[in-house]
Amino acid sequence: MSRMETLFRRAVPLCLAAMLAVSASIFAPSSLQAQDAIAPDVAAQTAAPAPHAPGGEANLIIPDLDQVQFLGLPGRTLLMTGLIVCVFGLLFGLVIYTQL
């Protein structure tokens, strides 16, 4: 094993750990730090519960795909092209599975 391979094998986990630490610090909730700086009585007054808004996937509003353009392609064309690619991927997987 060359020195470069050894260096790469040692550096990859360290780089991944560093990226994980940085992303965790970027996406950490900062509201806890800001709330600690406010006086407790002011924090209690401003911490009203949010009203419940019914929602979910059933209530999503989907745009008309014939009117939407993505990179110059109509939305419906792009969707159907993606479905065709998925079917080819399924067929490829089945062929490889049967050959095993």
Q: Order of SSEs, N→C?
A: HHHEEH
Assess the beta-strand content as a share of residues: under 5%
Q: What percent of the residues sit in helical stretches (DSSP H or I)? A: 55-70%
Number of strands: 2
Largest sheet strand order? 1-2
Give the overall average pLDDT. Answer: 74
Tell me the distance between the termini: 32 Å
- The class by helix and strand makeup works out as mainly alpha
- Residue stretches low in confidence (pLDDT < 50, at least 5 long) are 31-36
Overall body shape = flat
Radius of gyration: 26 Å
| Major sheet | 2 strands, antiparallel
Number of helices: 4
Question: Would you write up a description of this structure?
Answer:
- With 100 residues, the chain is mostly helical.
- Helix content is 63%, strand content 4%.
- The protein is built from four helices and two strands, in the order αααββα.
- The protein has helices spanning 3-26, 31-37, 40-46, 75-99, and strands at residues 69-70, 73-74.
- β1 and β2 (73-74) form a beta hairpin.
- The chain is flat and about 55 Å long.
- The model is unreliable at 31-36 (pLDDT under 50).
